[in-house]
Amino acid sequence: MKTLPSQNPTQTTAWKALQAHYNQTKDQHLKDLFKEDATRGDAFKIQWENFYVDYSKNRINAKTIELLLDLAEEVGLTEAIKNYFGGEAINVTENRAVQHMALRAPASQQTIVDGVNIVAEVDEVKQKIKGFCEKVISGAHKGYTGKAITDIVNIGIGGSDLGPVMIVESLEYYKNHLKTHFISNVDGDHIHQNLKKFDPETTLFVVVSKTFSTQETLSNATTARTWFIEKASAADVSKHFVAVSSNIKNVTEFGIAEENIFPLWDWVGGRFSLWSAVGLSVALSIGFDQFEELLAGAHEMDTHFQQESFDKNIPVLLALLSVWYNNFYGVETEAIIPYSQYLHRLPAYLQQGIMESNGKGVDRNGDKIDYQTGTIIWGEAGTNSQHAFFQLIHQGTKIIPTEFIGFKKSLFGDQDHHDKLMANFFAQTEALMNGKTKNEVLSELATKNLSQTALDALAPFKEFPGNRPTTTLLIDKLTPKALGSLVAMYEHRIFVQGIVWNIFSYDQWGVELGKQLASQILNEIKDNSPEGHDSSTSNLLKAYLK
Ligand code: G6Q
């Protein structure tokens, strides 16, 4: 079995060279780098399909990229990519392959996991999804009183929620008549608030849980079924409940018939599963053909990542830039700002993908790590974010590498709005890079009729240091295909960063811990007997139970 190389990155020659290089270049100002080289904007860009990736406004020069690429080679990235795509069990702590790429591969491709061609299995499930979507969308699938379905309710959490909800929101423009809802939190107020909106005769519940043992999802599904049965009957459940799961036994015990189960496999990680039947609510909401376009876009990115040389490879380069800031500049967080309201859930989705995958402190040899790993990700849609936290990015004490994602064309074609949106998009990256000097501030204030003393007092507050790094992704248009490529790009970046940091990106023991802890305390709450806790927790529990 081939797994992954396990090289401590800090022991490589490239890492040491990068450290020396950082010491030499850390104070260079981006503005000066642009002045020195008029072609910098051409040197650090990639044009791939409909993506234009400009990474020239980063605190790098040609040598930085050369050394980062050396680092990628030295930690064995080439071999790691081969084993990742080859279906090896690279999720070592769970002894599983990591094959979300097989979910979007063409049916003719072969990927063997444990001696089985998984692409053929995937295709079978896709045909089932296709048939079901056609029936529900056309109205051929009838509810218990003979009416067509109008509302889809996805019940799931974490990877069984964030991907589908992010894609459905992002592709709202492409949606059909079905209304799609998402219930994830075990907060009963949320589901009860939502149930008030639904008509049991025309609502379809899609219960998504890979393990079918997750407390939140099972509680919400049970509440939904009880609500449904009160209006209809147990015999009608099969017309209104379907499940997506790899645990057929638990699903059938819950009362959903086997023919209403859309399976998935061990080699699909929850946070990478939107391409599988976990994306059923996406396929229902935009139709199967457009769901396939989403998959096709992701597959194109898979091919780019797998085949392109590292110096022109988008996920590789962007991952290495993140390592550069995280490990040499010591930056604490990175912001992702999509300039499209449709993508407002993308930062939340990426928070799970990136932070759950690479938030690890033990390396692939099982040793505690003494360098920084997982980056903290946050963000919101532009321009809203400009009127909120951009202040800190411009003038705060921290460096926050920021990624701008924008589209050349709007969907409704309102050019005036789009020009305004994109003017902000370009202006921000330029301002973050250039900043504003004291002289510029003074000449701006010149018309204000202020005394010299007042001018001198005000100027420092209006200065901007600049030299704030940004990366710009300019994509032609928000389509299912482009979105598929964008999301897959982030998935592969996660992989590359995990390889460089010598960690396992595909387990999530921290999430598992949360699941165990809550069930222990829940028993104590139910028995009204909190025991064995520290004085803070025990006082809180007593106050809750009083
Ligand atoms: C994702 C995580 C986690 C998982 C949820 C839901 O990678 O493993 O977010 O998706 O805990 O799990 P189930 O799908 O098994 O309910």
Write structural notes for this entry.
The protein has 546 residues and is an alpha/beta fold. The chain folds into three domains: 9-74 and 308-434 and 469-501, Rossmann fold (3-Layer(aba) Sandwich), CATH 3.40.50.10490; 116-292, Glucose-6-phosphate isomerase like protein, domain 1 (Rossmann fold), CATH 3.40.50; 510-545. 48% of the residues lie in helices and 10% in strands. It has 22 helices and 13 strands. It has helices at 13-25, 30-36, 40-43, 62-74, 77-85, 118-138, 162-170, 188-195, 215-231, 237-240, 248-254, 280-286, 288-307, 314-329, 346-358, 390-395, 415-434, 438-445, 452-462, 480-501, 509-526, 535-545; strands at 45-48, 51-54, 112-113, 116-117, 151-155, 179-183, 203-208, 241-245, 261-263, 333-338, 376-378, 402-407, 470-475. The strands form three sheets. A six-stranded mixed sheet has the order 1-2-13-12-10-11, sandwiched between helices. Strands 6-5-7-8-9 form a five-stranded parallel sheet, with helices on both faces. Helix 4 packs across helix 14 and helix 7 (162-170) runs parallel beside helix 12. The longest helix has 22 residues, at 480-501. It is globular, with a radius of gyration of 26 Å. The N and C termini lie far apart (56 Å). It binds glucose-6-phosphate.
